[in-house]
């Protein structure tokens, strides 16, 4: 007899059976990311094995679509404006939605992917930030999920930042936990490598601390994020070296997530430097793959907002669902039936 999840003991022998069932599950999810300057739209299909904290991700295919200069200028203007009307957001959604849909359909067409093979599509875009009179920051997405779902017949999950803001968070950053799923040392028996993911883009450098996991039954460990205004390879290299020297725990590997080799291995004694190619990713596909992990967490009902990073009082499940065709949405519902919800403390749930 299967024990209800609220009565299960993590150390009970039947948990091994549950782990095997989790690992057998597999799904294909497309992640779509829009660059911060609205210049390009990236889409990456990811194969995800297992569910919840047991998930392992593997990139399959990627696609990139250039945004036309006229549409890019319009999106940049609306995003930077101090005051925006609903008509402005509608124009922005229509312009951006065409390129998002083309990117998704181009990815599927070039690689012979059927709509029935895709469980869902996760979408993240820069949107527009605004400061209200009370000093509180608000954010609104440019993605029109209903339009994209109609054009592709796929189930869409988006508005991750808006959900975090609604729960009391800042809506940023959202991808560090996705990077942990993609790049951390999560060996099932012996996980020893603490890693740091470094990504340089748009005159800033992001550093994400990826601690080694403690086995299959371990909870998600503490992930740290920092952002710095470094622009060239020498500054990035100095920044990484300072980070490693000041780290309280040993760093075993640096993952260079930028174009070219910005992190020099010869200046970091005893620390290995890896590139995205070593993990099967490119600079353009890695963020889109992270968005796919956000969408997967919505299916698994796995909280992705880290209180230490977004300021959200409690870890929350992020995202908003827009159903696709009946056949595609039925596939999505069947995937949710494979998941055992994460047990939360009563005070956190309240």
| Approximate strand percentage | 15-25%
Following the backbone from N to C, one meets helices and strands in this order, namely HEEEHHEEEHEHHEEEHEEHHEHH
Indicate the multimeric state.
single chain
What would you report as the Rg, rounded to the nearest angstrom? 20 Å
Adjacency order of strands in the biggest sheet: 3-2-1-4-7-13
CATH topology of the largest domain, anyone? Nucleotidyltransferase, domain 5
How far apart the termini lie comes to: 31 Å
Major sheet characteristics:
6 strands, mixed
Query: At the first level of CATH, what is the class of the largest domain?
Result: Alpha Beta
Report the structural category: alpha/beta
* Domain module count: 2
General shape: globular
Number of strands: 13
Count of helices?
A: 11
Overall mean pLDDT stands at 85
> What's the helical proportion of residues?
25-40%
């Amino acid at each position: 007899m299967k024990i209800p999840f609220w009565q299960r003991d993590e150390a009970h022998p039947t948990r091994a059976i549950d782990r095997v069932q989790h690992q057998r599950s597999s799904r294909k999810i497309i992640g779509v990311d829009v660059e911060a300057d609205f210049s390009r739209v990236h889409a990456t299909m990811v194969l995800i094995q297992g569910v919840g904290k047991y998930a392992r991700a593997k990139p399959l295919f990627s696609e990139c679509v250039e945004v036309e200069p006229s549409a890019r200028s319009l999106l940049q203007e609306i995003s930077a404006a101090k005051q925006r009307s609903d008509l402005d957001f509608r124009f922005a959604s229509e312009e951006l939605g065409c390129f998002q849909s083309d990117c998704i359909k181009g990815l599927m067409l070039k690689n012979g992917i059927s709509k029935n093979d895709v469980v869902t599509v996760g979408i993240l875009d820069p949107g527009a930030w605004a400061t209200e009179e009370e000093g509180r920051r608000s954010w609104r997405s440019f993605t029109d999920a209903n339009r994209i779902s109609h054009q592709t017949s796929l189930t869409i999950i988006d508005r991750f930042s808006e959900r975090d803001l609604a729960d009391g968070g800042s809506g940023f950053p959202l991808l560090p936990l996705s990077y942990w799923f993609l790049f951390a040392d999560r060996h099932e028996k012996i996980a020893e490598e603490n890693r740091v993911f470094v990504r340089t883009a748009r005159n800033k450098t992001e550093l994400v601390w990826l601690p080694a996991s403690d086995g299959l039954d371990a909870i998600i460990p503490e992930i740290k994020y920092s952002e710095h205004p470094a622009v060239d390879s020498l500054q990035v290299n100095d920044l990484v070296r300072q980070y490693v020297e000041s780290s309280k725990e040993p760093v075993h590997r640096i993952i260079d997530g930028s174009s070219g080799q910005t992190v020099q291995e010869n200046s970091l004694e005893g620390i290995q430097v890896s590139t995205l190619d070593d993990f099967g990713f490119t600079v353009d596909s890695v963020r889109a793959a992270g968005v796919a992990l956000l969408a997967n967490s919505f299916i698994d009902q796995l909280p992705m907002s880290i209180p230490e990073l977004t300021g959200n009082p409690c870890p929350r499940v992020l995202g908003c669902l827009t159903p696709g065709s009946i056949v595609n949405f039925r596939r999505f519902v069947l995937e949710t039936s494979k998941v055992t919800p994460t047990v939360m403390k009563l005070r956190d749930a309240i």
